[in-house]
Specification:
Blueprint: H1 10-21, H2 40-52, H3 56-70, E1 80-84, H4 86-96, E2 106-110, H5 118-121
Parallel strand pairs: 1-2
Helix pairs in contact: 3-4
Length: 128
């Protein structure tokens, strides 16, 4: 699960707990290294910082997927990425840049600007 633009706040943590109660193994990735805000201006600064460092965010997301695959209670063929707004965009980028030999099972995007380029989207052969 990837947080929205305000960061890994209590709302996101509560969503993790709710999904875990339903039986899902949920790992949330903090792309802001502990920074959380309620200010739109600060949030935009965090978004821009994460987007400017496009080596670190994808690397962290791929590392999260790799970690999940090592867990005994996780079916590696059923790993999905899920995110809101900024997190949805990051989930889509993860799906677009995941090794085609080991794709995500699905990508769930909630409230975000979507990629509409058919050539880019053709890289994803799983449900979005």
């Amino acid at each position: 699960m990837i947080h929205e633009w305000l960061g890994l706040n209590d709302n996101i943590k509560n969503m993790v707990d709710e999904l875990a109660k339903e039986g899902y193994v949920v790992l949330t990735v903090d792309l802001y290294t502990g920074h959380v805000t309620t200010s739109p201006d600060q949030a935009m600064g965090l978004v821009n910082s994460a987007r400017e460092n496009q080596n670190e965010s994808p690397s962290n997301l791929k590392a999260a997927v790799s970690h999940l695959k090592t867990l005994d209670n996780v079916n590696a063929s059923k790993i999905a990425a899920f995110g809101w707004c900024f997190g949805g965009g990051q989930a889509l980028q993860l799906a677009l840049n995941t090794d085609p030999g080991s794709p995500l099972a699905a990508t769930i995007l909630y409230s975000m600007n979507v990629v509409t380029d058919q050539e880019q989207l053709s890289k994803i052969n799983r449900p979005i």
